[in-house]
Amino acid sequence: MHPSIEELLNLRDGGSDSATRDHLRKCPECAETLRDLEATKTALRSLPELGPTRDLWPDLSRQAESPRRLRRAKVAWAASAAAALLLVTLFTVKGFRLHTPIENSAAAEKAGPAQPGPDLQPLILESQRLESILQQIEKGRPVLKGRTASAIAQIQDQIALVDLQISLLQTGETASDQLARLWKERVNLLGSLVELHVTKGAYSSV
Amino acid sequence: MAEVPDNEILLRRARKGDFESLFRAYERPVFHLVRRILSRTEDAEEAVQETFLEVFRSLPSYRGDAPLWSWIRSVAASKALMRVRRQKNRGEEEPLEEERAPGVPAHFSPERLDLERALERLSPVSKAVLWLHDVEGYTHEEIGGLMDRTPSFSKSQLARAHERLRTLLAEGDGEAACIRP
């Protein structure tokens, strides 16, 4: 009985089946098949190298870059979240309740100390004006592109942090220049947010 | 494939974010390997991208225990086999004959052309086993591991691939399938 191709391949690849070897000595047909199997292996190895039909790097570099960008964004988000958490924890430990700066400002007005000085009023009014613009924009806002939405979220996070700092400062004796600096920062951030909505929102609605 | 002499430099650069040098050094052997396993050029190109994305992601954990090319090659083989598996699951196991291997030189000999054609007509699994074993030098144990199958499965697929090749080549020239390299 002739050996199977599998048995011949085993012999070709260094196997030592004596029964198959004995058979090959007597059977020229199987000996030729073994030579063919060896020749096929050699022929396969000598096939020419195939190359891609286009440059694959541009696509690949984009794909390689996007997870890194995502990781960087996640790190930035985690840092903001950690900072916010720290502030909230400190705030809670101190036994204070969270308010938005405007609510807090009203509460502080009733309580007496640390009333917003006259130099803060224009900043607070500007802040309110920008917030009402943002509310209008939010009502008819189109779906935003991921990058724009991410930038908006980052600014909103920063505003939340500023709000927390303002709330903390408004509860005690506070230097009004510190509050003014924070209100100014709040106004700037709100301004950036409005600008981002107006400029990028228009493109992403297309 | 011979080991590229400046692998250390390539690795150092890649770890600093210069992935292109590493890609350029190995794109052709990776493409050649996956293209020989996969029938379609576009599948092979996607497998190349998947391979390098995996390589770039895994670079921090590469300790150099295996030579760089062996490591990249095993990633490439596994990506190509994953595609073969997916094709099989989708019922696309029949070999595709629509496409001639691109880049086949004009001076290609008829014997080799016959072999190329026969190769393309093998089932994807048989072709993958044949290529990994006979050309890349993987053992049946390694192929079984890559394919989540036993070494016996690899052995029987290799035998099936050779039997089919012999038949196809015999059909091609009307005589016994003796291939002269």
Which helices and strands, and how do they pair?
The complex is a heterodimer of chains A (206) and B (181).
Chain A: H1 5-12, H2 18-26, H3 28-45, H4 57-93, H5 101-111, H6 121-139, H7 146-170, H8 176-204
Chain B: H1 7-15, H2 19-37, H3 41-58, H4 68-89, H5 110-120, H6 124-135, H7 140-146, H8 151-173
In total, the number of domains of chain A comes to 2
Q: Identify the biggest protein-protein contact and residues per side.
A: A-B, 33 and 49 residues
Oligomer category: heterodimer
Average pLDDT of chain B works out at 83
The CATH topology of the largest domain in chain B comes to Rna Polymerase Sigma Factor, Chain: A
Count of DSSP helices of chain A?
8
Mean pLDDT of chain A: 74
* Largest sheet: number of strands, sense, barrel closure of chain B: none
Number of strands of chain A: 0
CATH architecture of the largest domain in chain B: Orthogonal Bundle
Task: Give a structural overview.
The complex is a heterodimer of chains A (206) and B (181). Helices cover 76% and strands 0% of the residues of chain A. Chain A is mainly α. Chain A has helices at residues 5-12, 18-26, 28-45, 57-93, 101-111, 121-139, 146-170, 176-204. Chain A has eight helices and no strands. In chain A, helix 1 crosses helix 3. By secondary structure, chain B is mainly alpha-helical. Chain B has helices at 7-15, 19-37, 41-58, 68-89, 110-120, 124-135, 140-146, 151-173. Chain B starts with 6 loop residues before the first helix and ends in an 8-residue tail after the last helix. The A-B interface holds A 4-6, 9-10, 32, 35-37, 39-54, 56-57, 59-61, 63-64, 67 and B 19-20, 23-24, 27-29, 31-32, 35-36, 41, 44-45, 48-49, 52-53, 56-57, 101-105, 108, 111-112, 115-116, 119, 130-131, 134-135, 155-156, 158-159, 162-163, 165-166, 176-181.
